[in-house]
What does this fold into?
Amino acid sequence: MQDLSFRSTYAHTGDGRRALGSLIRDIFGIEISSLDRLGHDPSVLAFGWWSGEHLVANVSVYERQLWLCGRRVKAFGVQSVATRPDWRNRGLFRDLFGRALAYADQRADLIILSTGTPDLYRRFGFRQIEEVRFGSETPAGTLSEGCRELSLERDDDLSLIIQAFAHREPTSLLASACDHPALFMLKAKLTSEIKLFHLKKLNAVVAVKQNESSLTILDIVAACIPSVAQIVGALGFTGLRTEVHLTPERLSWQPEEKEAVDNGYMVRGPFAPEGQAFMLSDMTI
Ligand SMILES: CC(C)(COP(=O)(O)OP(=O)(O)OC[C@H]1O[C@@H](n2cnc3c(N)ncnc32)[C@H](O)[C@@H]1OP(=O)(O)O)[C@@H](O)C(=O)NCCC(=O)NCCS
It folds into this structure.
């Protein structure tokens, strides 16, 4: 680590965010600069090794608010794990991840992350957990009152989403996430098939993917959680099949099918619903 300097105070400065954005773009091909407009999660803490003003390796942690088996649980998530190719295999990730874990361990019992490379994390005590997708024939819609598609380009729609997050109820008490809206909006911004709708009468924001024959409900942000039949009705969806990528016990709906999926989640520490059929949310990067 000769010639490198360690920093952890850059996640909320303009230069720091630009350096982090450029690392994420170079390593993952993802553009996160839209967060400057959508809003950053203030709980993010980045740990990095720098060569001058060049960020060469990073690990970030952020606070997560989860509902697990009836309890509200503060946990930490891990994101933006990357070392530039010229600096790999020198122990930079191992060093930064050790620091990030020490920080999170002092503040929470549970750390949760999503990865395509689970072997990287096993040695640090992480274990894989499986999620479940729920599906059925589309129930008859119970509400025909309309909806409006939201645009992340419109200031009033951004405010509406942020307000909805401020007052949101958990979609499930068994397993759900009530995190900061930053990743929810970034996911919608980066994924053209994801549409956000405001269901007026229900005062709910829903994130969905849909085509003529199928609807997938990815998240529901509302002070009073509507049923699947109400959402279907408000969207005016008449296709055959509905999928829900949330734990559905509060949605007044009986899924006919459950499909286990590996979304790459790993946990370290107690995770109460482990082994049960749940999905936290698909609106994460
Ligand atoms: C994964 C990554 C962050 C490792 O960074 P690094 O600074 O080179 O890591 P280190 O030098 O600290 O190596 C740590 C150990 O992890 C191992 N490792 C590296 N990549 C790995 C992978 N994909 N799967 C399993 N182990 C891996 C290394 O072999 C090393 O093992 P060792 O301690 O037995 O020698 C880096 O390769 C990278 O940026 N990859 C692309 C982005 C990515 O995959 N990020 C993680 C996704 S969540």
The longest helix spans residues 14-28. Residues 27, 57, 81-83, 88-94, 115, 117, 119-120 surround coenzyme A (CB under 6 Å).
